[in-house]
Design a protein that fits this description.
Strand content: 15-25%
Shape: globular
Largest sheet: 7 strands, mixed
CATH architecture of the largest domain: 3-Layer(aba) Sandwich
Strand order of the largest sheet: 7-8-6-5-9-10-11
Number of domains: 2
CATH topology of the largest domain: Rossmann fold
Order of helices and strands: HEHEEEHHHEHEEEHEHHEHE
Distance between the termini: 30 Å
Radius of gyration: 17 Å
Helix content: 25-40%
Number of strands: 11
CATH class of the largest domain: Alpha Beta
Length: 244
């Protein structure tokens, strides 16, 4: 199943008769300080210039999504939701707009990324979710989550995969970052619980990863503000403690 396409189908059914599809929407990448404030965390992809945070605006509602292919957009809701989501830059516009419209209609209460020291506080909340499990798999390196889990559950109990070639093979907080293209299946097989970043919806890997997780019936959480609206539409387990 293409889960992003399924989210679009469900979204359009949900919106039918509830909103004017000619409403204007603007989407643009945010400056770093506006996107995340001063988190005092090294290796965040946003701070390294590896990602940008897109923000969609619909009237007084905002929705955000991370992407490594930022592109601005100005048009109607109908046009935003008709984009070719086979393209990465369009997926980011689509997801940010999806988050904004669901926020506008009150279907989600979190569509904006947390700032300053909140990402570190978030990592401790996630620790509370996963610490009952002996082996934890993380798909998508997040430095705050890796740091807090490494310090509290032990580096031997954590496996992390990532697609950023600058991270792959490096040791972060005592944990070697593995190549997501080669080791994600192994991670899902060996982990007792899986955390996966919401940006898997943007880079096009979510459907494959989630099918593997579903086959093993492992508990999981999709983390981050990007996935807020999609997880609501698809009834997926989502964690984003300090998004707002």
């Amino acid at each position: 199943m293409d889960y992003l396409e399924e989210a679009r189908n469900r979204l359009l059914k949900l919106l039918s008769g509830k909103i004017d599809m000619d409403l204007p929407v603007t989407v643009s990448p945010l400056p770093i300080n506006e996107a995340i404030g001063e988190p005092h965390i090294e290796d965040l992809p946003l701070l390294k210039g590896k990602e940008r945070l897109l923000e969609a605006k619909i009237k007084d509602a905002k929705g955000q999504a991370f992407t490594d292919s930022p592109k601005s957009f100005k048009g109607s809701l109908k046009e935003a939701f008709s984009l070719d989501i086979a393209k990465c830059e369009n997926r980011a516009i689509f997801v940010a707009t999806l988050n904004a419209v669901l926020r506008y209609l009150g279907f989600i209460s979190k569509s904006i990324h947390c700032k300053d020291n909140a990402p570190l506080r978030c990592a401790f909340e996630i620790l509370n979710l996963v610490k009952p499990f002996r082996k934890i798999g993380i798909i998508g390196f997040h430095p705050a989550i890796a740091q807090v889990l490494a310090s509290n559950v032990g580096v031997d109990n954590i496996m992390i995969t990532d697609l950023d070639k600058e991270n792959i093979g490096k040791v972060k907080f005592g944990i070697e970052i593995l190549d997501g293209e080669r080791y994600t299946d192994k991670l899902i097989s060996e982990a007792q619980i899986v955390l996966l970043t919401g940006t898997t919806f943007i880079n096009g890997t979510f459907s494959y990863i989630f099918e593997k997780i579903s086959m093993t019936q492992k508990p999981y959480y999709v983390y981050g503000i990007t996935a807020s609206g999609i997880c609501r539409l698809l009834s997926l387990n989502h964690v984003c403690p300090y998004g707002y």
